[in-house]
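TA notes, week 10

Several of you asked for a full example with nothing omitted. So below is the full record: structure tokens for the whole chain, then the designed sequence directly under it. When grading your own attempts, check the secondary structure regions first.
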């Protein structure tokens, strides 16, 4: 089974020229790693040109955000259909930086379901802002999951990818402990199984936050995850190539 790596470039780089260079380096690293499946999340404005120029099967594209409505008076937004038309086959839903800017659990419900209806794959991002001694972060994560999945029909549950990203680790260089991720993966799976039954086992779970080439192999080995969502390291060509390489060797 291939490991999934999502490269979330966020609002980087500044020009298409740099984006193309970064993309070429990521592509090269992915092509050398047969057991890695790479999904690139460039800024939407670069999506069509990057995706249009790519002919292989090794890589896919994910839009960092899209609106749940199909069309209309939503200045500055892009629709899921437009993202698909530009070359994306995945939609990132509820990234913590979108949530910090006001996106709610209810928005994630609408976007996840709209992505499924558009035959795109939603990557539902969840994760607590801080860890609580009494384990309140588990109920926080459960609420995010229940909301995000609320309108997903049982026959489509296995299409959703869940990216667990502890917000307190994002942007740093230290992941949470792989065994804590393992515990969280069991909790995520159980929450989905409680909603949908056995089909919940098929949901793919990714870990994201502070992933580097140094911590990625242990997370893949011990974290009970299908892959990784990578932020700042994915915008550094050399570090990202080292990360992909570290997973393919693990
Ligand atoms: C993210 O924000 O999705 C993320 C994984 O960031 P970083 O890798 O920079 O922690």
């Amino acid at each position: 089974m291939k490991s999934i790596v999502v490269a979330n470039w966020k609002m980087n780089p500044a020009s298409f020229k740099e984006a193309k260079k970064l993309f070429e380096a990521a592509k090269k690293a992915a092509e050398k790693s047969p057991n890695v499946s790479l999904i690139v999340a460039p800024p939407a404005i670069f999506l069509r040109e990057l995706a249009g120029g790519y002919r292989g099967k090794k890589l896919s594209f994910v839009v960092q955000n899209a609106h749940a409505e199909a069309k209309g008076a939503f200045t500055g937004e892009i629709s899921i259909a437009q993202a698909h038309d530009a070359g994306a086959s995945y939609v990132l839903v509820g990234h913590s930086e979108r949530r910090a800017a006001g996106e709610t659990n209810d928005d994630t419900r609408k976007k996840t379901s709209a992505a499924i209806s558009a035959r795109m794959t939603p990557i539902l991002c969840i994760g607590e802002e801080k860890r609580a001694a009494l384990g309140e972060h588990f109920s926080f994560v459960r609420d995010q999951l229940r909301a995000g999945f609320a309108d997903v029909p049982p026959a489509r549950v296995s299409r959703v990818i869940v990216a667990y990203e502890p917000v307190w680790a994002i942007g740093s260089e230290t992941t949470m402990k792989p065994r804590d991720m393992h515990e969280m993966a069991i909790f995520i799976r159980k929450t989905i199984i409680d909603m949908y039954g056995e089909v919940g086992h098929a949901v793919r779970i990714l870990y994201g936050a502070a992933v580097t080439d140094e911590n990625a192999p242990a997370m893949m080995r011990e974290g009970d995850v299908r892959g990784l969502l990578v932020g700042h390291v994915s915008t550094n060509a050399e570090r990202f190539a080292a990360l992909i390489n570290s997973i393919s060797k693990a």
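The mean pLDDT is 96. Use that as a sanity check on your answer.
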